[in-house]
Amino acid sequence: MNRTILLFAAVILLASAGNAYASFQGKKPDKQDPPIASARNNAGAGDETKPTAIPATTDPTYVIGPEDMLDINVWKEPDVTRAVPVRPDGKISLPLINDVQAAGSTPQQLASAVTDKLRKFLTDPQVTVIVTAINSQRVYVVGEVIHAGAFPLIPGMTVLQVLANAGGFTTFANLKKIHVMRLVDGKHIELPFNYREVLKGDNPDQNIKLQAGDTVVVP
After folding, report:
1. Is the pLDDT of residue 110 over 60?
2. Residue 134's closest CA among 87, 65, 84, 61?
3. Domain encompassing residue 187
4. Is residue 120 part of a domain?
5. What gap in Å lies between CA 109 and CA 188, rounded to an integer?
């Protein structure tokens, strides 16, 4: 008799548990569910939009050179929009128009050249060119610095700024005898830079703007 009662009670408990599980499985999403779905939808929509490239320079007079990285954006034409390197021969390759001379042009001039070529294939193409990495123009720091080597020349970069990129000086650096070596008309000239004077503001004209190919020497 007792065994029959226990079996009957176990059946009732199992039935109740099954109903609870079915109820849980069939419950409607709570209020937090829609934002998750919405976030996924937004993520999917965002995939169709090309991320905005970060320019390495906003100088409209910057002249593109070999090994620079460019973002060529053709509005509403994702198949033509590309991030491309400038080849050593100064050209870039794009769909439809193949090779285009890039080195020697400003971003605006290159955009105009690409636009003219695309008009044969597209109606009213709108092209923007952004320099995303400057690799063609470099300056060099040698001598008693923490990180000697080549550095991308950012428009307006000064001696003080490139020395900061080099990580500072070693213990043996002669901060009064720093100089910039520059090639002018086929000859190397030396432009003095006294680090201590520049920091004090005594001779700020020594903190010149660097040019491509300049070498800062820290003896």
Report:
1. yes
2. 65
3. 138-218
4. yes
5. 32
